[in-house]
Fold:
Amino acid sequence: MQTVLVRVSGPDQLGISAELFDVLAGMKAVVHDVEQIVVRRRLTLDVLIEVEEGDDVLKDLLLFGFKRNLQINVEEVEDDPTEYSQQFVVTLIGEELSPAELREATVAIANGNGNIDRIVRLSRYPVMSYELAVNGGDITEIRKNLLNVASVLPKMDVAIQPLNLSRRAKRLVILDVDSTLIQDEVIDLLAAQAGCEREVSEITDLAMQGKIDFAEALVERVSLLKGLDELAIERAWHELTLTPGARTFCRTLGRLGFTTAIVSGGFSIFTDRLQRELGIQHGRANHLEIVNGRLTGELTGPIVDRRAKADFLREIAVIEGVPIEQTVAIGDGANDLDMLSAAGLGIAFNAKPIVRDAANTSLRVPYLDAVLFLLGVSREEIEAADSLDFD
Structure:
């Protein structure tokens, strides 16, 4: 017996695969592997077959190719199957991914002795993204190489994940709210209504960078809002801006059967409404005390701080029966660090440097739905789901 790789290439046409397999059946070939891809209506179809020694495999295949205006290449190869060792996925995301950027990423993988088995485009917009299936190599070395590449190529984000069941079976996504699900810091919107925006913003920045204790900073900022009425809170709600792609992200996760949750160092008076608007199942945030229609400058109940966010992730995972390795956490600030570390996949989204350095992976593009590409969901799949009636 001889093992032969048959490559069919040319313009894609209806019924090519069926006709090729009919030819192979007539040759009594044994099929060991098949891979097909179509790029801009140009087909490449590889079929690994086993046939009897001395069989003239070319004659019928060349006739098939001639009839279909296809190029046929036949190569005898070793009959030993490819041995797969450690497998993982590298995702590349950027507004545009130039050949120079792709070169740097692939060189980083090669320098870690990784072999790229397959490259698949996941999206053209709002960003370009590719998924690279990598076999073998030192994942620690490759991760270090890729992070070095990302640090000098600010327009390209890189993520590396083991290719295993946990990666394919993510089931719970929990998001920070301020500067993640939304573009704003809610307390800054309230401060603008109260006329103390500058003072509050300065404290917020220090807290998000981890330079002062979050709980202490929150109490100090809330005290500055004393006397603000409910009408001003409503005006702040209408100033709130969702992060681009947030609706698509939440809608697609729901259609995929994910459980979604938000947790915020902000305020439940906003997060409750966001939950209803975006169809998010779980939420937790701080509670502002309101007496006679005005803020007292105090909070009620426990403060949602860095530790509380991680505890909420674990709590929802238990409630939903989701193993912690099948969870995803997304955030931008220092008070998200414990949550990002606890999750199976922690994503720093347009985050402060202290958070980017600690998270599993980092995204610097401004579109929240780009997170879907890290989960292996393509733009075509998102759009196909949007075209269906799910009501």
